[in-house]
Amino acid sequence: MIDLHMHTVFSDGSVLPEDLVQLALDNKLEAIAITDHDTTQSLCHAQKAATERAIEGQPLEIIPGIELNTVWKEKEVHILGYYIDPENSSLQAVINAHRESRVIQMQEMAQKLKIKGKLNISFEDIVRQASETGTIGRPHVAKAIVEKGGAQTISQAFSKYLNPKSETYVRRKTVPPHEAVEAIYESGGIAVIAHPGDMEIVEELAEDLMNYGLRGLEAYHRSHSPALIEFHCSLAEKLGLIVTGGTDFHGLVDAYSKALERVHMPPAVYRELHAERKRLQMSAFKAS
Q1: Whole-angstrom distance, CA of residue 89 vs CA of residue 238
Q2: Cβ-Cβ contacts under 8 Å for 35 (sequence gap 6 or more)
Q3: CB contact at 8 A, 269 and 245
Q4: How many angstroms separate the CA atoms of 273 and 138, rounded?
Q5: How is residue 1 annotated by DSSP?
Q6: Closest alpha carbon to 59 in 28, 82, 35
Q7: Bridge-based pairing state of the strands 214-221 and 75-82
Q8: Which of 96, 111, 145, 239 has the fewest CB atoms in 10 Å of its CB?
Q9: Which domains, from first to last, does the chain contain?
C-alpha cells in the first residue's frame, strides 16, 4: 500500500513528519508522499526518519512532494507535485510567492475578524497556531478563533467565519495553476490535479494544463464516491494521464488507520507513478 497525500505540522496537519513515517510503517506502507501546502520543509525530517528506520530493517520510500494552492476562474485549484527537486529555483519562486500571499491574506483576515466579527484576534495569534517554520492557513485562523471563544469547534469556526461567503473571509491572491504545474515540471516532478471531484471544470482545466506539464489526476481521494473515482480514472485514460490518490491526512495519529481504510488504490497506481517518473527522466536526459 501507498499514501500519496499527507500533511504535517509544517502546513496544516497535526503531526510531525517523523510521526507520519512511523504511522506508515505501522500500517505496512511501501511509500508515502508528504505534500504539505506551499512548503517543502518537512521533507528532510521525513527522509531522515525513514533512513533511520530502514537501518532497523523497515524500508519506506519517501516521495518528495508538495501541494500548491492556486486559483483559476475564481475557483481554488490544488496542484500536487511528486518526485520534485525541493531546491529547484522555479519551484522555490512559486513557493515564496505563495508564502507571501498567505501572510497578506492572514493579516487582512485578522483585521476583518476584529472589525466585522468582533473578535479580539491579531495576526500574531494566528501565527502562534502554526509551526515556527511552516506555512499558515485557514486551519490556524480557525484554531485562533476557538482559542478566543469565537466558536466551540474548528468546523464551527470554518462555517461561521472562514467560508468564502462569510464577510470575514479574504481570498488569497496567488498564482494560477499553470504556473504551479510548470514549476513542478521544471523541478523534474510529476504534476497532478488534487481532489478534482471538487471542480466542475476539471476536463477543460486538465486539457489546458497538459500544455504546461500536467501528468495526472488524483482519482482516489476520501471525498470521492466510487462513481467519481471511476469518472476520473476514465478521464485520465482518455487524456493519457496517470491517476494517483491518498488519504489527504491532516489529523491525529489515532485517526490514520481509519483514514487509510477509506482510500483503496490498486497496486497499478504505484507502478504507473514510477513509470511516469522514468519517462520524465528519460525525456530530460534526451533533451540534455
Answers
A1: 33
A2: 4, 5, 6, 7, 65, 66, 67, 80, 81, 246
A3: yes
A4: 31
A5: -
A6: 28
A7: unpaired
A8: 96
A9: 2-87+189-287 (3.20.20.140)
Q: Is 258 exposed, middle or buried (0-12, 13-18, 19+ CB in 10 A)?
A: exposed
CA 108 to chain centre: 23
Lookup: cell for 187: 523541478
pLDDT digits (tens, 9 = 90+) for 192-249: 999 998 787 899 999 999 999 999 999 999 889 999 999 999 999 999 999 999 999 9
The bridge status of strand 214-221 relative to strand 2-6 is unpaired
266, three cell numbers: 490498486
Q: Any bridge partners for residue 63, and if so which? A: 33
Alpha-carbon gap, residue 259 to 27, rounded angstroms = 11
Q: Which amino acid is at 267?
A: P
Question: Distance between CA 22 and CA 45 in Å, rounded?
Answer: 12
Q: How many helices (H) and strands (E) does the chain have?
A: 11, 7
Distance CA 206, CA 71 (A): 14
Separation CA 1–CA 270 (nearest Å): 9
**How far is residue 29's CA from residue 158's CA, in Å, rounded to a whole number?**
32
Query: Considering only CA atoms, which of 77, 23, 71 is closest in space to residue 49?
Result: 23
Q: Is the dihedral of CA 110, 113, 118, 119 positive or negative?
A: negative
